[in-house]
Amino acid sequence: MKFSIGGSLKLAFRPWVEGIENIPAEGPAILASNHLSFSDSFFLPAVLDRKVTFIAKAEYFTSPGVKGKLTAAFFKGVGQLPVDRSGGRGAGEAAIKSGIEVLERGELFGIYPEGTRSPDGRLYRGKPGGLARVALATGAPVIPVAMIDTEKVQPPGKIVPKMIRPGIRIGKPLDFTRYQGMEGDRFILRSVTDEVMYEIMKLSGQEYVDIYATAAKRQIAEAKAEAAKKKAEAEKAEKAAQSGHAAGNKSGKGKSKG
Question: What GO molecular function annotation could you give as one example from this UniProt entry (predicted)?
């Protein structure tokens, strides 16, 4: 099923790829990518000959009805691995454990260091917990990947994709075995993550923002809420002014008749 889905995506969107030779023909490797769109987890596996496994929300595999079953089949077909993310820290540990298991089988493991999709197309600070811990626990090389224009194919909230040709740049593998066994050191985890994010930034050409994408999304949501509040207050004030003006006109007309 992976090949039929991948073939369909390549035929429909014709994604261009640079650096495909940096993907090893065999053995474990971590593909660390920027995250612009829901479709990133489909386009990257589509251009590779090898299977790559990403972590996906468990809800995608357990939704009821025909649509739910089709969704689950689709995610399994493109190599998605269900992980329950509702448990906070426990969810993070489950994702790390799953990633280690994939790599121990000698396979490719895909991860988004930003932790969530970029809210505005910029590259955000990588979270040190998942990527670095999996890399140091396994010794697997980390291959930086840049998805290009995928957010234009499937913008958030849009169901029907646009027929835009996306791109994928794959960088050279990064070796962090010098830090192996030091996954308990938060400074090492931060250093490894920042090095990977720098390589992704060079590949993608994105503007880098040194805050987490989750914090940026929260700021954007708060700004929108504040703007909506001010707009509502302004509209309320305008209506009150219009009502006052209308009342004044009626009062003026009544006096003139007297």
Answer: 1-acylglycerol-3-phosphate O-acyltransferase activity
